[in-house]
């Protein structure tokens, strides 16, 4: 979420520095420019910088926690000394971070509403801070996950093959989602948000109940899934060469796959550089004008590159699958039997998940984790793979927010540390509970809890934003992506 939101935030940042005069009736009209309404007369008012010492301007627009700074910008008051808002906000974020880390979900759908509703942050401050906390949590979780093994074999817990297919297309989808987020009015986004999260919560709950019943009954058989192809294994005498190849394949799986990690990192760096180059509707780091011919050329360039990465990955997986069948490879519970059909469907769903994550302003993990569970990937593997993808996206987004000077560092430093501790407690705590009670379904129900809470909290914050616009008779229609 944070990775794609910087493009939208860049617009507000640029506007506050070079925006032509915008007429206004009250400060809420100026909110998207981070300015206030300057009343010059009965029929002459425009958005402009606040003036320090003139009371009420920043408080009206952003709340009592904001005040006018020396440079004419409405800025959050310093963290120290802490007040009750800060103590309550940090405590709730810590609790939410522990639960989110256990389920392998970033938690942005909980963190952002808590920062806005309880902490009194404006949205453009809450999003970067949420991302910094997710970065801290995912860093700690990633460190622990890399030391864990698959529950049924001596190999990494992270399903890198699946991540290599999902992440590039999900990232390319976020680029499309940013455009749609800019064009769609808040009420459309709110309706889509509630529908998507309610559907995801419902389907993931059914998956959790199914897993819980299977655990209670002690069933060992694998579930059938239309996207999974239960390949028949040829039982034949292996030649000495095939035995060596099969043994080599098993040995390779035990190692940390550096090349696969490099592919994931490369696709992410491409999107980061692409975002900084085009600058969204804000300022490009290389001076590309918004909506110019060069802008749209650069905008479209990212798609064939990421699609090519996915195509080559799928081709590699299909060839690997063919070799596995020839060697009578022993599949583990939850392994994906790659074929043209399921690789195409997974690719399409990943692209759609990327669009939805950036369009609706939620983390990709809230959509991709349930998708992996739908594919019958083991809950522990799903959580670990989700953590891996979240770590890459949140780390790069944090760098971009820092470049754009969007992070309140006093709060950001504290939230990063809270993220680290919540990630450690969440990962170790839930892992201990799952091993003690042998209930993998607990991971699924943790995902359900986070998505369910996010549905309520994001629904409330989105609803309040829509009502506020209605109360001030603000424009409620579709917007133009390019400035007129």
From TrEMBL:
Tell me if Cytoplasm is a UniProt keyword of this record. no
One Gene Ontology cellular component? Cul4A-RING E3 ubiquitin ligase complex
Among the Pfam families in the record, one is: TauE
* Domain of life of the source: Eukaryota
Q: Where in the cell is it found?
A: Membrane
- Signal peptide feature range: 1-18
Topology class, membrane: Multi-pass membrane protein
The record's listing under InterPro entries reads: TM_pro_TauE-like
Q: Which keywords belong to this entry?
A: Membrane, Signal, Transmembrane, Transmembrane helix
Q: Give the stretches traversing the membrane.
A: 87-117, 129-149, 169-198, 262-281, 293-318, 345-368, 380-404, 411-434, 440-467
Q: State if Magnesium is listed as a keyword.
A: no
What biological processes does GO assign it?
protein ubiquitination
- PANTHER family reported for this sequence: CEREBLON, SULFITE EXPORTER TAUE_SAFE FAMILY PROTEIN 5-RELATED
Q: Which protein are we looking at?
A: Membrane transporter protein
Species the sequence originates in: Arcella intermedia
């Amino acid at each position: 979420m944070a990775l794609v939101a910087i493009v939208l935030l860049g617009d507000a940042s640029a506007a506050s520095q070079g925006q032509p005069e915008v007429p206004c009736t009250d400060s809420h009209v100026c909110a998207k420019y981070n300015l206030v309404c300057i009343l010059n007369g009965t029929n002459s008012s425009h958005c402009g910088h606040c003036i320090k010492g003139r009371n009420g301007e920043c408080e009206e627009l952003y709340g009592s926690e904001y005040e006018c700074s020396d440079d004419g910008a409405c800025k959050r008051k310093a963290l120290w000394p802490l007040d009750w808002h800060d103590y309550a906000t940090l405590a709730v974020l810590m609790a939410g971070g522990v639960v989110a880390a256990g389920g392998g979900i970033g938690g942005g759908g909980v963190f952002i509403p808590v920062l806005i509703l309880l902490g009194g942050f404006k949205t453009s401050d809450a999003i970067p801070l949420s991302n910094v906390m997710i970065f801290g949590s995912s860093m700690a979780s990633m460190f622990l996950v890399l030391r864990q093994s698959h529950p049924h074999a001596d190999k990494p817990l992270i399903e890198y093959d699946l991540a290599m297919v999902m992440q590039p297309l999900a990232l390319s989808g976020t680029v499309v989602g940013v455009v749609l987020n800019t064009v769609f009015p808040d009420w459309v986004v709110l309706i889509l948000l509630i529908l998507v999260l309610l559907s995801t919560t419902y389907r993931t709950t059914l998956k959790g109940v199914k897993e819980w019943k299977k655990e209670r009954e002690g069933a060992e058989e694998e579930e059938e899934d239309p996207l999974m192809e239960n390949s028949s294994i040829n039982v034949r005498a292996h030649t000495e060469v095939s035995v060596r190849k099969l043994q080599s394949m098993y040995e390779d799986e035990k190692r940390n796959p550096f090349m696969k990690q490099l592919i994931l990192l490369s696709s992410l760096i491409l999107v980061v550089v692409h975002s900084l180059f085009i600058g969204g509707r804000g300022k490009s780091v290389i001076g590309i004008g918004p909506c110019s011919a060069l802008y749209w050329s650069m905008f479209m360039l990212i798609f064939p590159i990421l699609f090519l990465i996915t195509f080559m990955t799928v081709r590699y997986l299909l060839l690997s699958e063919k070799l596995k069948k020839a060697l009578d490879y022993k599949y583990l519970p939850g392994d994906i039997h790659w074929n043209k059909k399921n690789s195409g469907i997974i690719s399409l769903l990943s692209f759609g998940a990327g669009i939805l994550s950036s369009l609706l302003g939620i983390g990709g993990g809230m959509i991709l984790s349930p998708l992996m569970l739908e594919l019958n990937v083991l809950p522990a593997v799903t959580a670990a793979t989700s953590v891996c993808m979240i770590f890459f996206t949140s780390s790069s987004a944090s760098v971009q927010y820092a470049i754009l000077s969007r992070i309140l560092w006093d709060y950001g430093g504290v939230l990063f540390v809270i993220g680290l501790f919540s990630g450690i407690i969440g990962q170790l705590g839930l892992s201990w509970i799952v091993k003690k009670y042998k209930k993998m379904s607990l991971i699924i129900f943790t995902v359900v809890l986070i998505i369910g809470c996010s549905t309520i909290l994001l629904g409330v914050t989105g609803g309040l934003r829509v009502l506020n616009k209605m109360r001030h008779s603000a424009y409620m229609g579709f917007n133009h992506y390019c400035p007129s």
